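Researcher: Next entry: Translation factor GUF1 homolog, mitochondrial (Bicyclus anynana).
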Amino acid sequence: MVTIINKIWSFNSSAYNIRIFSRRSFRRAYGTNIDDKSIDISRIRNFSIVAHVDHGKSTLADRLLELTGVIKPGNETSQVLDQLQVERERGITVKAVTASLNYKYNKKDYLLNLIDTPGHVDFSNEVVRSVKACQGVIFLVDANEGVQAQSVAVHSLAKRNNLVIIPTLNKVDLPRADPENTKAQLKSLFNIAPDTVLSISAKKGWGVKELLEAVITRIPPPNVDLNEHFRATIIDTWHDKYRGVLCLAYIESGSIQVGQTVKWRSDLKQQTLKYLALLRPSEEPIEKAVAGQVVMVGCGPKGGGSVGDELLSLASAETTKVASAPTVKHMVYAGIFPADQSQHTQLSDAIKKLALNDSAVSVSIDSSPALGQGWRIGFLGLLHLDVFTQRLLQEHKAEAILTAPSVPYKIKVMGAKTIKQFKGEEAIITNPLQLPDPNNIVEYYEPFVIGTIITPVEYIGAVNTLCVDRRGTPRPSSAVDEKMMMLQYILPLSEVVVDFHDTLKGLTSGFASFDYQDYGFHPSSLVRMDILINGVLVDELTTIVHTSRLEYNARNMTAKLKEMIPRQMVQVAIQAVVSGKVYSRETLKAYRKDVTAKLYGGDVTRRKKLLKQQADGKKKMRSVANIKIPRNTFIDVLKR
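Model: Predicted structure:
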């Protein structure tokens, strides 16, 4: 009988080849033999890189991978951890990616679990989940741009989670870099001592070794207990074609090994652990993992798991049957429909798999008379929406029609018991068609956000004008330094999500940065605007608008429809209506046929007879005609 397995075989489904990992690779991974009962937790470091967008997080991650021997220096592939096609095309990080690195410091081997996080506000949920598995963060700031709006947000997140912060200035090699001024900004905004700030150039590798050693010396090891029952928190999930659902887990206590029976806290269902691996960032199978590590786990094609759930040992106490998944505040809702209803099943499978990998979206069934069966999906912002639809096409070959995005509203209704769809006096409305009769609505509530804008002082006037035009209410501002100001406004979410960021960048020549956080629902003067085509309501074009924007939106919508709807045999009246009052009307003239063209003379009564017959026919057609709007017209009008 074979008592020792010298090699472990792992099937790589993406490349269809076999990889072999020897016992020596496991010794390198842990700094110890895999048969040892314990792993030195004091030599584990879990940390993330957090920063504003385009401050060099992925480039720094590349240098750390080179320094620890994962990739060779001068590798032609940059941004190794940006593995999605959409990330490489757009030059942004969308998914937080983990890489377990080995590094020797003072003749001791350390296991460093690095998490490269996104910088855009639309993917802040990835950062929130990532820091739950960390004890410290590298707070990266561009020495050319200084502190930006998202820098303020990620620093607050790290402080709320009691993480050790290593402030680091990047891009100090560039001619425009001003490290001393940036350190002064850090001191002014966050009370960070200048002598604790490190300076690096991630592109050239300057100071990266010192930064990595600072991670070891400044960030503490995970505070975990090996003697407790096994418990791991799921911080990410994705779908594998051959192995089913795979999860990224942070082990909070105890240990786990392949073949062990575990259970999910959400339903207490028992399963056998079949896959266990470190991400380096490619998978490296292991036999055992202990508390403090971040590992990939899988329970086979029938295995489950969701973000926020917990994986437990059978011996652990069953304290609760409900998983404490983190709450996500969706800022934008949009309808997604298949380009053809024959592709409904394919698109449904693609959305389920992508929603598993992107836990920040919410999915509910929706339908449309013009577009058929589809889904109403909630997103964190417009960029999140764009990336989601692009990933549907690139990763799953699923073409989708995207309707105009809208924000959620809240209403207080009168006589809620008589309205079937409402269980209480207040309800969240994600689709304007869900609105009851206006006579039953006591009050409307609109979502607001606190917007933080950091801008050069010469653009303060233009920025203030923009915010006031978008119904913003100013809050106290503060000076970042002599050249930069931090402004704060309370803004309606509907005025922010569409084009506020692009307009702000245009007004400030690209120098201003913007970030926002939820401020809750507040009373607002809102109405439901319907679009009628020859008196017939078109459900897909119903919107909720603020009364101050009503006339502008009404004229804009009717003018757009007049351009896009093809001419009919009868006259078409396009109306924007609120509570029975028409705020805008456009008329699409009918096709005209000269029925008297064949006449070449004779009595005038023959001409009058033909014209009367045509008039009677058009009158009858108007009374029974059903104006058919082509599907492509709906697509052009509804899409953003």
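Model: Note for the record: The longest helix spans residues 604-624.
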